[in-house]
Design goal:
With 581 residues, the chain is mainly α. It is 69% helix and 3% strand. It has three domains: 192 residues, Four Helix Bundle (Hemerythrin (Met), subunit A), CATH 1.20.120.230; 108 residues, Four Helix Bundle (Hemerythrin (Met), subunit A); 238 residues, Four Helix Bundle (Hemerythrin (Met), subunit A) (Up-down Bundle). The longest helix is centred in the last third of the chain and has 36 residues. It is found in: Cytoplasm.
């Protein structure tokens, strides 16, 4: 939405001057192309706004690895960024401490490595990457493959021995593999910054724009054409830098900004050259000259935005940007609660490790349950819908333990846990109705046993959330307990889903229903787009107050539309801001 708005704002003046030029010189082909390009840019931006407002964003079918035509809007691309695939790879390596290195894990690790090598090809294939950097990247990719093969070899030998715990040898292999991944990541960052620094060091934009104006004023279309070739080459180099910046950007906003810069530069270049060609054909036209000035200023503004982006990405890569500190709600001055200021307090190493371990265990259960729900073939299966919704919520809580995802405060975590417990009760009712249709058998008894545990865990989780919190220790204990109870409930849900699938398959029971609103699925390993449940539930109870607080609008949207799963999972939860006690 922000990218579309920026395009419309900048295109307004372009449309005015290009239309004036076209009216003054109706026989000029370049003037017509200039105006048509601006119209196309604005039309696609408006289409984007309409699609976002009506559909809530781009669907998976609309994903494109290229710019959205001439709109200047970069769409979500099907190719993941290098930072993302490297973080996914690191996360898989860390999971081997729990899952060990079985055949399925080996396949996932090799697939992740293939994605890393594929994304690094954008760096090695770039014509503007130095020979030294290209050779260094290729060498580091080989080193990463060697370390991964060693990890798989050690893990496979332990798996064959049926050793349940990870040995020191496996731990060393994991650390070496992750270190090789980080070294490669650093090299990709350095390569991008080398290209960017060389680009801005020359300051070629100023000379090219000045030359276009001089030759246009002199009425030399041939000279403008010659200079246009150099300008296009320069534009391609700028786009290449944007492409690499997108790869190394670690945050969603920076990735979107890089895509937007690349697409705007791609679109503005031919429009600017058309304006210069028109001015060269009519050097005495003040309207044509003013039109060229407008496009030149738009280009200069975009270059300034790119330079800011380079600095921001570089700061993030070097860890200079101010890190987000989690803050507990209620905040001072809101809800009439208290006036004390927030005091961020760091968790000690033991507390961080405990929270991270719980989160990792919960993610493992989430992955196992996703695998179970993927076995169901019915598109309108109530049990699967509820289970996947709970899986998505649990995953967002796992991201919180890593300092990622939509949950930014401890109160957000507690609110999410409240919705999670409510969804668990709904799943219990759904499966209860299903169990009544299962014939008496051992499978039914097993299903009932697992099912009866769900409301117990739901009540335990809700009881934990009602506990008052004052000070750092109490808040940490509440977070710890909430994640532990969520993990227990998720484990029970996974067993219920597995047993339900066995019963449905063995006794040929149809679990589909028309009473529940529809969900849209995008494949077994992709995001859940939940458009039905959880958006109107009451908020959670906070602290020691008896006041019922509804979830913030941003959180309500997350529950209604589904909490999207992020793959940037490598940032540990280092701080939780607490109220002064």
């Amino acid at each position: 939405m922000g990218a579309a708005r920026a395009v419309l704002e900048k295109a307004t003046m372009m449309l005015l001057t290009s239309s004036k030029t076209c009216l003054r010189h109706p026989d000029c082909h370049s003037a017509k192309q200039n105006r048509a390009g601006v119209f196309a840019q604005m039309r696609r931006a408006l289409d984007m706004v309409h699609q976002i407002v009506t559909n809530g964003g781009m669907s998976s079918d609309s994903l494109s690895p290229t710019v959205n035509g001439d709109s200047g809007i970069g769409l979500a691309t099907s190719q993941p960024t290098a930072s993302r695939v490297l973080k996914d790879f690191d996360d898989l390596c860390e999971l081997t401490r729990i899952t060990m290195v079985g055949p399925s894990t080996q396949e996932k690790l090799n697939s992740a490595l293939d994605l890393i090598i594929e994304s690094s090809q954008d760096f090695t294939d770039s014509a503007y990457t130095s020979h030294e950097n290209r050779e260094r990247i290729l060498d580091l990719c080989d080193q990463l493959r060697i370390q991964l093969n060693n990890l798989i070899k050690i893990g496979a030998s332990l798996d064959q021995k049926e050793n349940a715990s990870s040995s020191q040898e496996l731990e060393t292999a994991i650390l070496k593999t992750i270190e090789a991944s980080k070294v490669l990541h650093k090299q990709l960052q350095d390569t991008t910054m080398d290209q960017a620094s060389e680009l801005f060091k020359v300051n070629e934009d100023h000379d090219l724009l000045k030359g276009l104006k001089i030759h246009g004023l002199a009425g030399s279309p041939d000279k403008v054409d010659e200079l246009s070739v150099k300008f296009r080459e320069h534009s391609e180099q700028l786009e290449e830098v944007c492409k690499l910046l997108r790869h190394i950007a670690n945050t969603g906003p920076l990735i979107i900004t890089a895509e937007h810069n690349e697409s705007v530069i791609h679109v503005t270049c031919p429009l600017l050259l058309n304006a210069a060609q028109t001015f060269a054909q009519y050097p005495g036209s003040r309207i044509a000259e003013g039109n060229l000035d407008v496009f030149a200023k738009a280009w200069e503004g975009q270059i300034n935005e790119l330079s800011i982006l380079v600095k921001e990405v570089n700061d993030v890569c070097q860890g200079k940007m101010e890190k987000h500190v989690y803050q507990s709600l209620p905040r001072p001055g809101k809800h009439g609660t208290m006036v004390k200021s927030l005091r961020p307090v760091k968790l000690d190493a033991e507390e961080q490790a405990k929270i991270a371990k719980l989160g990792l265990e919960m993610k493992l259960i989430t992955s196992e349950m996703d695998a179970e729900t993927d076995k169901w073939e019915e598109a309108d299966n109530d049990i699967v819908k509820r289970a996947k919704n709970m899986s998505s919520m649990a995953f967002s809580m796992y991201l919180f333990t890593r300092g990622e995802g939509p949950l930014k405060t401890t109160q957000d975590l507690f609110t999410q846990a409240k919705y999670f417990a409510d969804e668990g009760n709904k799943l219990y009712k759904t499966v209860k109705e299903f169990a009544e249709r299962v014939p008496a058998s051992g499978h039914k008894e097993e299903l009932v046993v697992h099912l009866d545990r769900i409301p117990v865990f739901c009540q335990q989780l809700l009881k934990t959330l009602r506990a008052p919190t004052f000070g750092k220790a109490a808040t940490f204990n509440k977070v710890d307990s909430a994640i532990q109870e969520t993990k227990n409930l998720m484990n029970a849900v996974a067993k219920v889903v597995t047993t339900s699938f066995i019963c449905a398959t063995k006794y040929n029971i149809d679990c589909r229903s028309t009473s529940v609103q529809s969900y849209k699925w995008r494949g077994s390993s992709q995001r859940l787009d939940n458009q039905a449940n959880g958006g109107t539930d009451a908020g959670s109870e906070s602290g020691g107050s008896s006041t019922t607080t509804t979830a913030p609008p941003s959180l309500q949207n997350s529950y209604i539309e589904g909490l999207y799963r992020s793959s940037s999972l490598n940032k540990p939860l280092s701080t939780i801001g607490l109220l002064d006690s």
